[in-house]
Amino acid sequence: MTKGRTGAPAFDRGVVTTIHQGDCLVGGDEDLTFSTILGSCVSACIRDTQALVGGMNHFLLAEPSGNARDRYGASARYGAFAMEQLINKVLSRGSGRKANLEIKIFGGGLINAALTDVGAKNIEFVREFLGNEGYAVTGEDVGGAFARRVMFKPYSGRAFVKRLDSVAGASVAREELSIVGTRSAVKPPMDDIELF
Fold first, then answer.
1. I want to staple 40 with a disulfide (CB 3.0 to 4.6 A). Which of 36, 68, 98, 119 is the partner?
2. pLDDT, tens digit, for every residue of 131-159?
3. Can you tell me the distance from the alpha carbon of 156 to that of 33, in angstroms, rounded to the nearest whole number?
4. pLDDT band at 63 (very low <50, low <70, confident <90, very high)
5. Which residues neighbour 120 within 8 Å (Cβ) at sequence distance 6 or greater?
6. Quick one: which of 2, 40, 33 has its CA closest to 18?
7. How does 155-165 read in b/e, with b if 16+ C-beta sit within 10 Å?
8. Which InterPro entries match (predicted)?
9. HEC per residue, the chain
10. CA distances from residue 54 to 57, 130, 195 in whole angstroms, order as listed
11. Which residues in 134-146 are b (16+ Cβ under 10 Å) and which e?
């Protein structure tokens, strides 16, 4: 087993499953890794420390727009639904005990001036939601002016964050702007390519 820079074992990617905006997946296989790319979006990684199962969600907008024509009122892109869905899935696959949950949050970057308060609102929302539900955040990498790739191993609870360059950040910003601007529920194309 190779060691990382801090003396910890190197991050073994194993079998990678990509999480896109609106997704919420849970698993417990030892070699499973969830991966997502975040700009203004936020992902929570929640793990049951007793049952060794966990999951990841990915949402862009903390709250619906209030527009009656908004097409994704129950979409997982909204923080409350995304968080409740993930917590409930982990509890049902795990021990069922809230005290066993370990929660990490990622994302909420300011990657484009047109998305000025989206990331900050998402960070504020997820912290407030977890606090109101009686959960503590055990780890986080939020804010900043960059996009990031997050990889999470639900079995061990290890997370790896890579800050992305401006070219990748611009691509993420374009995708988020199209969702914020049009309120469409179009998912990004499935992509099996992982670059590091």
1. 119
2. 999 999 999 999 998 999 999 999 999 99
3. 10
4. low
5. 108, 110, 143
6. 33
7. bebbbbbeebe
8. CheD-like_sf, Chemorcpt_Glu_NH3ase_CheD, Cytotoxic_necrot_fac-like_cat
9. CCECCCCCECCCCCEEEECCCCCEEEECCCCEEEEEEECCCEEEEEEECCCCEEEEECECECCCCCCCCCCCCCCCCEHHHHHHHHHHHHHHHCCCCHHHEEEEEEECCCCCHHHCCHHHHHHHHHHHHHHHCCCCEEEEEECCCCCEEEEECCCCCCEEEEECCHHHHHHHHHHHHHHHHHCCCCCCCCCCCCCC
10. 11, 16, 24
11. ebeeeebbbeeeb
107/31 Cα distance (integer angstroms):
24
Instruction: Write out 18-37 in H/E/C secondary structure.
Output: ECCCCCEEEECCCCEEEEEE
User: Does the domain spanning 15-114+121-139+149-182 belong to CATH 1.20.1260.10?
Assistant: no
Tokens found for residue 164: 């992305």
Question: How would you classify the pairing of strands 15-18 and 32-38?
Answer: parallel
Percent of the chain with pLDDT over 90: 53
| Domains in the chain: boundaries | 15-114+121-139+149-182
- Amino acid in position 68: A
Sheet holding 101-107, edge to edge: 24-27, 53-57, 42-48, 101-107, 137-142
